[in-house]
């Protein structure tokens, strides 16, 4: 939970908080075989550079139902930060006794836990944050309401009573008792007693930890995937975790596979066909249909993967991959422009044809490069930076780049031989009619 800071008029803070309060239940010249050199060389160089971009899952703690002062009926390991929960629910009076187990990541840091009454996200969470008192060094526990302004980080987050929950009691202790000290890895326990709304046992739990506290102001927590995924919905009556987004893993896998094939393999492959096969006379117009077919397939397949990515963003409101998302939108928009450009392709006799060709080349190559880079970003986002899946893709991309190098060398050999023959023919050193190069161009 990103938190910025808090200021208090008094430094006399209460270790035990008692607030009668309702439960918080809880993101493309034919003649003389001429070749447009500069931008193709740029494209090849950029592809070569991509190979150099070829970087940790979260582990949960084992939960326990017993602490030094109390025993609980149920417990669960939370999915991130080695945190866990233990609780006892009393159905007769809808009371919940609960203990949250977390750990510090800095001697001057903070650990927070809370409940969101409406949705599984940070915004709207009613939180209790524990940290060492800057004056006495003792652990203090303060209440916060994480409203939408918290993400803006424009002002300190002020501690304030949680008036819309039934928080009967709360306290925080370090594991190890009074002699325990705050250090990196120190374990903290937050105890609360809550009065739940009758028949409402499904709760959205939110937790996190930060590096620093300025005065009595907890600062923003790290923004890794692990830290942005610290949300869980649990039914305290049955003890089961909610499975409302249980298909996220399947969607992530589908998103990764589809986009790697579309943007990372088909799109570069279609560009290679247009670059090297259009000069082969024996193929006639076949190269064009192959190029267009592959690129359109890549675009439509990539659209499916793009849509899945949007859906994943909706299902994970707290998880944001900024660079990956921006590159994805950019690649999709460029691919859409390329597809629409086919409808406005001028004839070869049209004076605007050369401008269209320049546009088509540069936008197409930009789309290819951005798409491939984003595939690597996707591997990092999925925690597969050092995986066999990424290695397999690198091998596929290396093979494609190797083919490009071989074809580029072959093209230059043919081009140089053709230029030398034309020069000798013009000087009369060799005979023969001046025929066209034999390059087939599609109008």
Automatic annotation (TrEMBL):
InterPro entries: AIR12_DOMON, Cyt_b561/ferric_Rdtase_TM, DOMON_domain, UCP037471. It comes from Eucalyptus globulus (Tasmanian blue gum). One of its GO terms (cellular component) is membrane. This is Cytochrome b561 and DOMON domain-containing protein. Signal peptide: none annotated. CDD domains: Cyt_b561_FRRS1_like (cd08760), DOMON_CIL1_like (cd09629). It is found in: Membrane. Heme b binds at residues 255, 291, 324, 360. Residues 217-416 form the Cytochrome b561 domain.
